[in-house]
Amino acid sequence: MRTRNAVARDYYGILGVSREASDDEIKRAYRKLARQFHPDVNPDPEAQEKFKDINAAYEVLSDDRKRQIVDLGGDPLAPGGGGAGGPGGPGGAGPFVGFQDIMDAFFGGAAGGARGPRPRTRPGADAILRLELDLHETAFGVEAPITVDTAVLCTTCAGAGTAAGTHLATCEACGGRGEVQSVQRTFLGQVVSARPCTVCQGYGTTIPHPCPTCAGDGRVRTRRSLTVKIPAGVEDGMRIRLAQQGEVGPGGGTAGDLYVEIHERPHDVYSRKGDDLHCRVTVPMTAAALGTRLTIKTLDSEETVDVKAGTQPGSTLRLRARGVPHLRGTGRGDLYVHLDVRTPTKLDADQERMLRDFAKTRGEEVAELTKQGGFFSRMRDAFNGHA
């Protein structure tokens, strides 16, 4: 069994780094050596002792205060050697570093995320607002006023969260680290684990005197009036993005975006499919047979269209470029007029006679449906028991 010398140990030499090594270089060296000498990988007693030295070296060199003691010629882990607490003493964590650092050595820092205090200033969330528009407004665009309820920067403290003339204070419970450590015994030995500080909620600082307006959040909720420019050609369900008009983040962080979601109201006449419009127009049977001229009122004009003689029910007329303007690019969709041919339901005697004469001239036989001789009349009489 190796024994430790009373003199200050060469922690830089244990990790194989120079005294000018950066924090990242120290961490990379520790991970490499930990993977090589970990007891689960290398059961040799010498490797186990080496692993303890590696952990001790990393504990010291990853702590700015302890590293400064080493640079001054002291040993922060030696009893009375200039460190605030040796192994197992007050403030010390023993020769083993936290479980997170051991996990970092094997998984590249993926387990548990970042260490240290979390920032008070964080980006804000996005917001969404529903905006109802008429077909004419979605087709040709509009500048619409909107009202938004979001969090905005507190003007009293400018996002700092502190009352006037006061400042943030370092958390006494965690010393500004944002986390507190606890010691546990595991199969690896004595392991130190870190948890967010419950006093400062992991921030590392506290607010002794919160801003009276925002209560320390750095933001307040308010109702704002904005004007959103809706481009021509938007469709139902589309969203317009207003950059940084959403929620201001905690601590006065950058505001998120505001999304205005378009909802198009149904139109009394037109239905929309993409950039094309559709409508239905009823024409009399005689007009469909003889031909006629219709005046169609479009979204922005009036158009005259010819209905050719002999037009059949269900026919469609197409008016080019009378639909909705294209959102991207130039031009417009088309307007489709669907024709419903109306057949008269009641005829007087003269009208009926003229239609029968017209049918005869065309060689079309039209059977009369009378009460005595009609087919439906005979069926009715049969059901009623008449011969």
Automatic annotation (TrEMBL):
<dbReference type="InterPro" id="IPR008971">
    <property type="entry name" value="HSP40/DnaJ_pept-bd"/>
</dbReference>
<keyword id="KW-0479">Metal-binding</keyword>
<dbReference type="GO" id="GO:0051082">
    <property type="term" value="F:unfolded protein binding"/>
</dbReference>
<keyword id="KW-0863">Zinc-finger</keyword>
<dbReference type="InterPro" id="IPR001623">
    <property type="entry name" value="DnaJ_domain"/>
</dbReference>
<keyword id="KW-0862">Zinc</keyword>
<feature type="compositionally biased region" description="Gly residues">
    <location>
        <begin position="79"/>
        <end position="94"/>
    </location>
</feature>
<feature type="domain" description="CR-type">
    <location>
        <begin position="141"/>
        <end position="223"/>
    </location>
</feature>
<dbReference type="InterPro" id="IPR036410">
    <property type="entry name" value="HSP_DnaJ_Cys-rich_dom_sf"/>
</dbReference>
<feature type="binding site">
    <location>
        <position position="157"/>
    </location>
    <ligand>
        <name>Zn(2+) 1</name>
    </ligand>
</feature>
<keyword id="KW-0677">Repeat</keyword>
<dbReference type="GO" id="GO:0006260">
    <property type="term" value="P:DNA replication"/>
</dbReference>
<dbReference type="GO" id="GO:0031072">
    <property type="term" value="F:heat shock protein binding"/>
</dbReference>
<feature type="binding site">
    <location>
        <position position="171"/>
    </location>
    <ligand>
        <name>Zn(2+) 2</name>
    </ligand>
</feature>
<feature type="binding site">
    <location>
        <position position="197"/>
    </location>
    <ligand>
        <name>Zn(2+) 2</name>
    </ligand>
</feature>
<feature type="binding site">
    <location>
        <position position="200"/>
    </location>
    <ligand>
        <name>Zn(2+) 2</name>
    </ligand>
</feature>
<dbReference type="InterPro" id="IPR002939">
    <property type="entry name" value="DnaJ_C"/>
</dbReference>
<dbReference type="InterPro" id="IPR036869">
    <property type="entry name" value="J_dom_sf"/>
</dbReference>
<dbReference type="GO" id="GO:0009408">
    <property type="term" value="P:response to heat"/>
</dbReference>
<feature type="repeat" description="CXXCXGXG motif">
    <location>
        <begin position="154"/>
        <end position="161"/>
    </location>
</feature>
<feature type="repeat" description="CXXCXGXG motif">
    <location>
        <begin position="211"/>
        <end position="218"/>
    </location>
</feature>
<dbReference type="GO" id="GO:0008270">
    <property type="term" value="F:zinc ion binding"/>
</dbReference>
<feature type="binding site">
    <location>
        <position position="154"/>
    </location>
    <ligand>
        <name>Zn(2+) 1</name>
    </ligand>
</feature>
<comment type="similarity">
    <text>Belongs to the DnaJ family.</text>
</comment>
<feature type="region of interest" description="Disordered">
    <location>
        <begin position="73"/>
        <end position="94"/>
    </location>
</feature>
<feature type="domain" description="J">
    <location>
        <begin position="10"/>
        <end position="74"/>
    </location>
</feature>
<dbReference type="InterPro" id="IPR012724">
    <property type="entry name" value="DnaJ"/>
</dbReference>
<feature type="binding site">
    <location>
        <position position="214"/>
    </location>
    <ligand>
        <name>Zn(2+) 1</name>
    </ligand>
</feature>
<protein>
    <recommendedName>
        <fullName>Chaperone protein DnaJ</fullName>
    </recommendedName>
</protein>
<dbReference type="GO" id="GO:0042026">
    <property type="term" value="P:protein refolding"/>
</dbReference>
<dbReference type="Pfam" id="PF01556">
    <property type="entry name" value="DnaJ_C"/>
</dbReference>
<feature type="repeat" description="CXXCXGXG motif">
    <location>
        <begin position="171"/>
        <end position="178"/>
    </location>
</feature>
<keyword id="KW-0346">Stress response</keyword>
<feature type="binding site">
    <location>
        <position position="174"/>
    </location>
    <ligand>
        <name>Zn(2+) 2</name>
    </ligand>
</feature>
<feature type="repeat" description="CXXCXGXG motif">
    <location>
        <begin position="197"/>
        <end position="204"/>
    </location>
</feature>
<dbReference type="GO" id="GO:0005737">
    <property type="term" value="C:cytoplasm"/>
</dbReference>
<comment type="subunit">
    <text>Homodimer.</text>
</comment>
<dbReference type="Pfam" id="PF00226">
    <property type="entry name" value="DnaJ"/>
</dbReference>
<keyword id="KW-0235">DNA replication</keyword>
<keyword id="KW-0963">Cytoplasm</keyword>
<dbReference type="GO" id="GO:0005524">
    <property type="term" value="F:ATP binding"/>
</dbReference>
<keyword id="KW-0143">Chaperone</keyword>
